[in-house]
Amino acid sequence: MKLFEIRPAFVRAYFVGAMLCTVGGIAAAAVFAEPAWVVLAVLIVGIATLVMIGRSLSNQIMGRLRPALLRDLSSLLSLHRMVEPRGAVPPAGGWAAEPDTLLELVSSTQRSGEAPTIVECGSGTSTIWVALALSARGNGRVIALEHDASFRAETLASLERLGVASWADVRHAPLEKRRIGTAEAAEWYDASTITDLDGIDVLFVDGPPSGATGRRGFAFDELAHRVRPGGVVILDDTARPFESADLARWLSGPFRIERRLGRSTMLRRDPVSVHGPGVATA
């Protein structure tokens, strides 16, 4: 998000003000034969400039942040009304999923059919909210793949504290160097941790860490054909180059964009058996 910019009108106003103060200072120095007037004029220009810049930047930043803050607050309030957690939930945003993404994840979970299967690539705040939603509806399960053992332990501790550990299966899924088809070799989750996954109602792809050591695109090769017709896929961070390329691969199969969610994109699998590369007919 571009928080501020130096606007042409502001620059013009500054130079006009600076010129008037400087000319006035020089004129006063000539009339009163006192160089201190020039120094005073320069100080006035400096102070006025700082005040003007501060006010301009403050107004611009707040103008850009306010809609996002209001949207996040609204999403968080909706989440708490929907599942009513019995304790503090780890914060959203930052490395964790943003509130609007979490809200859609929970909403999709609640709209799913009987005993839905929710799968996450990565674990954390999203796992906790989904487990809370499953507990509220009384059926279903969430399976989260987590390569970091210490982070997995933190997620499990939060689930226990909130009384929803029985609704979540947070699997330690170490990263391993893999090559699928002609794709460049990269790290993805241990294949043995996903052998039993099928009939996925909601898939949330927020891991492994993107970049040179991890490639979230492998989720398409390994999990796309396991998503039910009509199922939901939410891809996080799709504005970034790697994830943007991954999104294009999903769209080459039987998936269509349903909503843009801030930095995430929500897809839905076609309810019919039309399929693209790498996706088997359900």
Report on the architecture of this protein.
The protein is α/β, with parallel strands linked by helices. It folds into 2 domains: 8-77; 90-269, Rossmann fold, CATH 3.40.50.150. 46% of the residues lie in helices and 18% in strands. The protein has 7 helices and 9 strands; from the N terminus they run H-H-H-E-H-E-H-E-E-E-E-H-E-H-E-E. The protein has helices spanning 8-32, 36-83, 99-111, 125-137, 149-161, 218-223, 241-251; strands at 117-121, 141-146, 168-172, 175-178, 186-189, 200-205, 227-235, 255-261, 264-269. The strands form 2 sheets. It has a 7-stranded mixed beta sheet, sandwiched between helices. Strands 4-5 form a two-stranded antiparallel sheet. The longest helix is centred in the first third of the chain and has 48 residues, at 36-83. The two termini are 40 Å apart.
Name of the CATH architecture of the largest domain: 3-Layer(aba) Sandwich
Helix content estimate: 40-55%
How would you state the average pLDDT, rounded?
A: 81
Oligomer: single chain
CATH class group of the largest domain: Alpha Beta
What structural category do the secondary elements indicate? alpha/beta
CATH topology of the largest domain: Rossmann fold
- Helix-strand string: HHHEHEHEEEEHEHEE
| Helical stretch tally | 7
CATH superfamily of the largest domain: Vaccinia Virus protein VP39
The coarse overall form would be: elongated
SS elements, strand count: 9
